[in-house]
Amino acid sequence: MGEYEDIFRAATVDPEAFWLGAAEAIDWHVAPTRALDGSRPPFYRWFPDGELNVCHNALDRHVDAGRGEQAALVHDSPVTGTRRTYTYAELRDEVALFAGVLTGLGVGRGDRVVIYLPMVPEAAVAMLACARIGAVHSVVFGGFAPKELAVRIDDATPTVIVSASCGIEGKRVIEYKPLLDKAIELAEHKPSRCVILQRPQAEAELGENDVDWAGAMAAASPAGCVPVRATDPLYILYTSGTTGKPKGVVRDGGGYAVALRWSMPNVYDVDTGETIFTASDVGWVVGHSYIVYAPLLAGATTVLYEGKPVGTPDAGQFWRVVAEYGVKSLFTAPTAFRAIKKEDPKGERLGQYDLSTLRYLFLAGERLDPETHRWASDLLGIPVIDHWWQTETGWPIVANPAGIELLEIKPGSPTKPLPGWDVQVLDAAGQPAEPGTDGAIVVKLPMPPGSLPTLWNDDERFVASYMSAFEGYYLTGDGGRVDEDGYVYVMGRTDDVINVAGHRLSTGGMEEVLASHPDVAECAVIGVADPLKGQVPRGFVVLKAGVDRDEEQLRGELVQLVRDQVGAVASLRDVAVVPALPKTRSGKILRKTMRGIADGVDEPVPSTIDDASVLDALRAVLRRG
Ligand code: COA
Ligand code: AMP
After folding, report:
1. Which ligand minimizes its atom distance to the CA of 367?
2. Which of 314, 321, 335 to mutate to test the pocket of ligand 1 (most atoms within 8 A of CB)?
3. Strand, helix or coil for residue 83
4. CA 569 / ligand 1 centre spacing (Å)
5. Would the CB of 349 count as within 6 Å of ligand 2?
6. End-to-end CA distance of the chain, in Å?
7. Which fold has domain 502-623?
8. Where would I find the Acetyl-coenzyme A synthetase N-terminal domain in this sequence (predicted)?
9. Of ligand 2's atoms, which has the minimum distance to the CA of residue 499?
10. Closest ligand 1 atom number to CA of residue 331
11. Which element (helix H / strand E) includes 617?
């Protein structure tokens, strides 16, 4: 029996003992005497009688243990030509000061703070400062448009918003302040203050409710760590669901800290004093967990990288970062490697750098296609580890636990469930699927610490979205199978969520925007295969009777509408005008059939189709386009 199997079994046989044991790696103000409170399923709570402060565990405890001079966070920004390393002591001081700024602005325990920042160290500082004073942060990805930000402001009702004058996308400077002002104008809830970080690439004019970051820091006194209940929310992270209204995934502090701390050495094989480089964005869960919280909880060094893997200045930036900071584990999305491969197919940039510290490449966020897996493995000559998880789960569900034991890699599989995750595949009737047969991937309740306890202010939607399809199971929204050896294969979403360049987006949300155009009678948005981004959205609209428009112009308007309402990150570039959408006799749009046609794979036509001739018209339009 391998070590992985032993550990997995220990967590299954006695989860109380396993997770209370894992909790010993965390500093508690009041140590938990119980691991799980399962008295109110499906609302499970971890470490119900524990009290802690996550910021203390991420920063102060390392300084107190004499590691104040070790590098905690490196900001590496090729787009601005700057780099800065913060030691644990420096980061603790900066965070304590910003915590003082927030307290001075009236932010208290349980209050929400929305953070809308590019990839600057201040993003991590603001997150940790909230954790320090028991406030709840909600980071919104910078690529979302004002309307998306406004929806999140109205749901989270923040006391304060933290933002910057601008972000940098390649060579373009994107002014954030007008986007923020527009979002506040659109939102019903108004924050009392906005703290604005001025960046030299484009300074913003501040209004009467705005506070300058630097000025506020200069005047502030540091604030200490406030112990909170383990079950108190640490953050809300909005993620795309099947409609335009995002889901506010709640993360508790105690369970999350325990799970992340466990995952660092056991999954990523990175521990105190070692360096991890997670190339993602703090606006996504990967950024929350493996740029900010997990590396710092482990006393490791984290690299916060501002830029793309390619372009500015070239496709060798990831290798440069690895060499410069002695990175042991690199974590990003497969799409980043496809982008590097496109620009540097032979990997010639690699030869310029010493990558001897690099032991693993971890990939997640979307399906890892076998060709990218092979290319990256051949190029780097190290294990390339696919692993699968979601915003909701906070940390990996299925992975190759490199720090415990490297299991055989089967391309196409993110490998096996981690301790605490009882992953199963069910058929439509809710019966266990045979090994190797596709079905809905579910997790038997309770899920381990770190996973979402509920949705912000919406227990009902939590139950309806995740807990109702199969009683006693969490519905992941992904379809796939488990093979005879227990390897999990994740084939794709079974709902209206798509993954574009590793970014999770709602096709339902985009449909709501297209449908709001005065000339559109009905519409559908589907994800189609894309060689770089994995998937991209493609829109189909049916015009209202009597509308006679120049199609090119109309398409331009529709693309712009989605860009304005959802954001550039939606990457919707293609909208086709079609005479009708294929539907079942009961009026349900046959999206799977449409996806097949758009991808050039002819799916069997469902017998429930209302009018099969619609498909021919659709094919003709797509062939023309
Ligand atoms: N702020 C403002 N705009 C943003 C943004 C941000 N934070 N992030 C992306 N955008 C914009 C981009 O500039 C682009 O705009 P454009 O249409 O005007 O060119 C648009 O949103 C689409 O962005 P993206 O899908 O990221 O495409 P890209 O061509 O800019 O970059 C990759 C493609 C593959 C290089 C990039 O997506 C990448 O590195 N992804 C992998 C890492 C990652 O972030 N994973 C997330 C989860 S692990
Ligand atoms: P997010 O919540 O943004 O992290 O997106 C989660 C979704 O991304 C999952 O539900 C999957 O659809 C997809 N995903 C993440 N990792 C993988 C993976 N390794 N293989 C296949 N799909 C993945």
Report:
1. 2
2. 335
3. strand
4. 6
5. no
6. 56
7. GMP Synthetase; Chain A, domain 3 (3.30.300)
8. 4-58
9. 8
10. 48
11. helix 613-624
Which tokens is 86 given? 């913060």
Question: Which DSSP symbol is given to 625?
Answer: -
Quote the DSSP letter at residue 449.
Answer: T
- pLDDT computed for residue 489 by the predictor: 97
Domain residue ranges of the chain, discontinuous segments joined by +: 1-56+252-388+398-500, 78-226, 502-623
Tens-digit pLDDT profile for residues 300-334: 999 999 999 999 889 999 999 999 999 999 999 99
Instruction: Pick the ligand that lies closest to the CA of residue 286.
Output: 1
Q: Which residue has the tokens 């559908």?
A: 524
Which ligand 1 atom minimizes the distance to the CA of 167? Answer: 1
Residue 625's pLDDT is: 61
Q: What is the CA radius of gyration of the chain?
A: 24
Residue 153, CB half-sphere, CA atoms under 13 Å: how many?
28
Cβ atoms of 282 and 139 within 8 Å: the answer is yes
Binding site membership of 367 for ligand 2 (Cβ less than 6 Å): yes
| Atom 2, ligand 1: residue with shortest CA distance | 143
Give dist(CA 46, CA 622) in Å, integer. Answer: 51
Ligand 1 centroid vs 550 CA: distance in angstroms? Answer: 30
Q: Looking at residues 265-275, what average pLDDT do you find? A: 98
Q: Give the domain 1-56+252-388+398-500 fold.
A: Rossmann fold (3.40.50)
CA atoms 101, 107, 108, 110: torsion sign: negative
- How sure is the predictor about 1, in pLDDT bands with cuts at 50, 70 and 90? low
**Whether CATH 3.30.70.2740 fits 78-226:** no
Regarding the beta carbon of 507 and ligand 2, being less than 6 Å apart is answered no
Nearest ligand atom owner, CA of 479: 2
Q: Which residues contact 465 (CB under 8 A, 6 or more apart)?
A: 241, 247, 455, 475
Ligand closest to the CA atom of residue 170: 1
Find residue 574's DSSP bridge partners.
Answer: 538
Residues 6+ apart with CB under 8 A from 208: none
Lowest mean pLDDT segment, chosen from 8-12, 224-228, 430-434, 583-587: 583-587
DSSP state of 414: -
365 lines ligand 2 (CB under 6 A): yes
The two domains 1-56+252-388+398-500 and 78-226 share their CATH topology (first three levels equal) = yes
Structure confidence by residue, pLDDT tens digits, 434-462: 999 999 999 999 999 999 999 999 999 99
